[in-house]
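Hello,

I think I submitted the 6-O-phosphono-beta-D-glucopyranose job twice by accident. Can you confirm which output corresponds to this input? Input:
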Amino acid sequence: MIDKLNEAFGVPGKLQFKTGQGDLPKAVITTPFSTAEAYLHGGHVTHFQRTGQKPVLWMSEEAVFRPDKAIRGGVPVCWPWFGPHPTDSSKPQHGFARVSKWEVKGSREMEDGSVRLDLGLEDSEESRGLWPHPFQLGLSVTVGEALELSLIFKNVGDEAVEVGAALHSYFAVSEIDNILIKGLEGGDYIDTVGGARDVKKQEGPIHFSEEVDRIYTDTEGVCVIEDPVWGRNIVVSKSGSRSTVVWNPWMDKAETMGDFPDNGYESMLCIEATNAAADVRRVEPGGMHVLGQRIEEAAG
Ligand code: BG6
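Support: Only one job matched these inputs. Its output is below.
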């Protein structure tokens, strides 16, 4: 399978398919600016790093690479719902895209030296058991000076559907106590810690001293992760999204997650480009919706 993928989609010196952890196939991308990796399992980007710099994405040392399990870290693709299923809690949290096997649809080197990989996922008997709609989903991953992700949903059925989604990016940070997130000041958020749904207002930048699990509503803005110890800012922008989720499980929740080190919360945070809460999207037959996220590292 790896040989066939390389024959059809390899780009010499830039994009190669290899057997990754858990024997799952992955794409390894090398550009003059950066390196990245993406697994076909989940359409999951697990690595992005500027040349000579530290990794931008956080990966759990205890991540499980198995077809029935979502990879902990990197950028899980949550789709076609975000969080628990709206009416049936027996269905998997965050939908099924992150535990589905995606296909490679295309690859190419761009004029500016970046490399693009296109993945696709379509409905199957299994998906229709969880979500009874035909669909075409694409994920384009462009690796260059920035990491750019576009999740493209086409409604190929004959009924309008509502979709929730997230590009659930995990970011690596020096030490959570040092970190500020700017860009959401003054905005409203739904505080979902412990299953509550209280609406609160963000006063000043975000800093972390306890579990944070928030859906910022009505925001299309750019977030900046300021990391003074590592001397870098991570700039996270998005499109097709009016909600942003910020998550850090903190100590107690970290201990309950089997694939997450007990102290893992000290070195990560998530900023997710979402279609969550009132920002789920209704897509008419023949229509499409594109959710995008751009991740860029800048000197701090
Ligand atoms: C976040 C949610 O997006 O994902 C959190 O807001 C959740 O509530 C977290 O705990 C991780 O979810 P999971 O299913 O990957 O453990």
